[in-house]
Fold this sequence. Notes:
This protein has four helices and 24 strands.
Amino acid sequence: MRLTYILAVMLALSFAAFAQTVGQVTGVVTDPSGSIVVGATVTITNSQTNATRTTTTNNAGDYAFPALQPGVYNVKAEMQGFEGEVRKGVELHVEQIARIDFHLKIGAVAQTVEVAGGAPLLTTESTTVGTVIDNDRIVGLPLNGRSFTQLIALTPNVSYNSVASGGQASARQGGDRSTQEIFVAGARREYTNFTLDGVENTDPGFNTYALLPSIDALQEFKVQTGVYPAEFGHLQIQVNVSTLSGTNQFHGALFDFVRNNAFDALPYGFTSVVPVSAPFKWNQYGYTLAGPVRIPKLFNGKDRLFFMSNYEGFRLPRHHRSDDRPAVPRQYDSREPSGHDRQRVPAVLSRTQHPERTEQRPVQQLPRKGQHHGKQMADNRARGRCAKREIKLVCSF
Length: 397
C-alpha cells in the first residue's frame, strides 16, 4: 500500500512538471465516401516504451490523445466492417499538436493497411511559431563549453553574441550565462524565458537560465517566438527544454573532454621567454544511463517503469603565472566615465630585476564594498569544481 501511494505521488508530480513539454495527436476518421466514422477505435503506442492508450471517435468522427511525451509513436484506427489502418513512425516533438487523419477502406477487420514514411506533419492545429532543435543536433554539433544555449542560434531570426563581461550578473551568477547575448525576433536578451521539463528555469534577477543541464541528458528543446499558449506566461520568447526518458532498452554513454599539456600545442611566445608548457587545463566528464527499472527476482519495470540518470563534472583549475608582459603606464582608469567626472589614478614606482631601471604601473581601483566577495564566489563557481546531477523516473500504465 505504501509503495502504491509513493508511485501515485510520483506520477502526479510528473504530470504537473511535464505540462509544458507534452504534445498531442488528433485527427478525424472517415470512410471511402468521406463520411465520418463514429465509434472507431484509435490506439496509439510509444514504440520505445510500448505505452499504449486507446480512445474512440466522437459524434464528429474526431479523436484526440493529449499529454503525450515527445517521441516516436504508432497510431492505429479500426472499425467493424473496415480494414484497419496503421501510421508508423509518427514523430512527436515538444509542444506539438500533430494531426493524423485516417481514411478507412471497406474490408475485414483482420486486414490492416500500414502507412509509413508519409508526408511531414504540418502544424495545422496550433498557431504557435517556433523551431525544434532535436537530439541529433544537440549531441552531434560541436559546442565549446557544452552549453545547449549556443544552439539557439540555429533558430531563424536570432542574433547570438558573447561578451567579455556581463556586469553585475557576472559577479553574482558566475559562469557564462551572464556573458551570452541572445536576441530572438528583435526582442531584448532579458525577454527570454527558460523552462526545463515544464518547470520554471529562469533567474528572476537577470532573466537568464538558472540551471544548465548536460547536453547528453537533453532530448530536444523548442524556441517559441510567438502565439504560444497562455500556460507560458509573461516573457516574449520561450525556450522549452525536454530531458531524456528511459526506454525498454538500456542506453548509456561515458564522456571526457580534456585539454591539457599532453593534447594542446604550446602557446605562441610573445616575449624572449619561450613557454615550455601550456598552462590551460579543461576537463568535462560524466555519464548518462537510461533504461527500465529492474530489481532481480523482485521487480521488472519493462513497459512500466523507467529511469534516466546523468552526471557531469567540470574542472577548470586556477593557474597563477608570472606577468611577463611589459607594463604600460596609464594616467586614467579606462573604466571611469570621460570628462571632468573621470578620476585620476595615482601611479607608484616598482623595482624590476634591474635596480637602475624604474617603470610605472597603475594602481588598480579597489572594489566597492561587497563586490570583491561576490566576484570571488562567482570565480569559484566558474573556475573551480562544479557538477550537475539529474535522476528522472517515468511511469507508464
